[in-house]
């Protein structure tokens, strides 16, 4: 390894992904030591071990404080392009009730702390990520966003997790193209400040962001968005003319407004909404829909005739009784161009109640369907079987069926289903598997269950 | 050309004759002149069209030779020669995975075999195997991933030789793969283990090493 030219060694060292590994490499040889100063990224995570030792009176004095380590690292490197600091996974699960922690040694979004080293690296910084310690950060409001916007003019990617953020003093950051906020309490009720200060955003991820009332995303350059909204909001609005991929999960908003005409990939999960306002999708190819009342959603929203891959699911399994019935042929009148259809767990049961009537008109509508994937529960064997057969009879081009049967179904029922399906339609490619909530899906290989 | 000159001559002659005509014959003379004057532009256009036809033939002849090469169906083979004299014949597309070789081909230096002085035949065999797979299965992401994982199950010396070769030959994907594999091997090891794994000599004096350790005490907490 000594023979490798320095640029190659630098390449290897920059892929280490953890500043602790890099620090150990520095001790290994002089070459490593001198090259390590040219590494441009800092990756520092506080392990559970370190946290425990710093709390234990015996070892407390020998542990270097996390914040000091970071400040030292910043001063060692020449140019810093990426900073990723946070706490390890086990620490994230520590609940506020378990630990009484008035300290701030792991309060990473603290403005005083960040202000000590951020100006030194802000010239070259393009990517910044903080995963804060919820126990110490949830009750302290941080103005770190304002600080970041004042100094980091080249920042392109920003990620903050587990913090309480204020948007006071937030200045525009036109170069920011990717923003991820996870488990944040954001003091920007309608997301106005976010829309205003980050006009160049192309990717936006808001997962578990609280403190919103009538949030509206209005970003002209946005291409991909992932948004998980809690039930506390009144309305949900997205206006993004260039948006291509959207994953939106809400519970029961009073109003849902989606104006994204260029959308190609949509994953929408909404239990119920009092009012919808959705602009027609002209480019939509992939649609994954989850709702309590699939029929209402499918009938009232203009998903467009361009959908090729359709995936349907229910948000809750126990409320099947109240769901309106919706048959296969109605599905195809809404989506005439579907070629791949998937039913996630419990959704199949809604559809199998309505057997398709036979007929040439039905057959011509379902001509485009090529493959079906479904998760079956088999409440009534004959219903399931006749539904499968009627679909196969109506869809002349259907050539692949991937069916997962619930693990709790009795063995002989499963094997009867499999053998009857395969004998009745031998030309179809059948793939059988098992599923159960909480466990991974498994394929049945050639009769081995 | 001669025809044109003749046309001009007759035109001039007629002109002279006409000047001697009496006033009575003048009308007839004009129509006669008009007929003769048609000859002049006609000859010029005839000459010009000849010229165009000639130029067209010339250009089509020129373009026919590269067209002939492009329409050939068999793939062009490139010969590579390792440092220990062994030769390898590979398809041009496979060889072009290496930017170094690609530039050589584009600059037209690749007519006979290309010598690769820094790479032994064993390493070159592996490199060619990698490039071939990545050209063949370009769209199969999953398959390539599992191939890469298997491909990297090699001993340290081969790994370093591959790194050097892919660096010299400028094959980015192989270089990335190799560097990441080495980095993954360093992760989690303490300095002694790192030195042992990679056969690095410890060129620090005990005092110097102590100094370095003191700079990052947190790692050894």
Automatic annotation (TrEMBL), chain A:
Matching InterPro entries, A to Z? AUF1-like, F-box-like_dom_sf, F-box_dom, LRR_dom_sf
Q: Which Pfam families match?
A: F-box-like
Bilayer-crossing residues are: none
Q: What is the lineage of its organism?
A: Eukaryota, Viridiplantae, Streptophyta, Embryophyta, Tracheophyta
Q: What is this protein called?
A: F-box/LRR-repeat protein At4g29420
Q: Which PANTHER family match?
A: OS05G0510400 PROTEIN-RELATED
Give the species this sequence originates from. Answer: Coffea arabica
Location of the F-box domain = 1-39
Automatic annotation (TrEMBL), chain B:
InterPro entries annotated for this entry?
A: SKP1, SKP1-like, SKP1-like_dim_sf, SKP1/BTB/POZ_sf, Skp1_comp_dimer, Skp1_comp_POZ
Q: Which GO terms describe its cellular component?
A: nucleus
Which sequence ranges are marked TM in the entry? 38-57
Q: Which UniProt keywords apply?
A: Membrane, Transmembrane, Transmembrane helix, Ubl conjugation pathway
Return the SUPFAM superfamilies for the record.
POZ domain, Skp1 dimerisation domain-like
Basic and acidic residues compositional bias, start-end: 211-221
- Is Cell division among this UniProt entry's keywords? no
Q: Which domain of life is it from?
A: Eukaryota
Please list the residue ranges annotated as the SKP1 component POZ domain. Answer: 76-135
Q: Where is this region: Disordered?
A: 201-221
Give a Pfam family name.
Answer: Skp1
Pathway where it operates: Protein modification; protein ubiquitination
In the UniProt record, does the keyword Transmembrane helix occur? yes
Question: Which biological process, per GO, is one annotated for this protein?
Answer: protein ubiquitination
Q: Where is the SKP1 component dimerisation domain?
A: 172-218
Entry's PANTHER family?
A: SKP1
Instruction: Report the family membership.
Output: Belongs to the SKP1 family.
From the Swiss-Prot or TrEMBL record, give the protein name: SKP1-like protein 1A
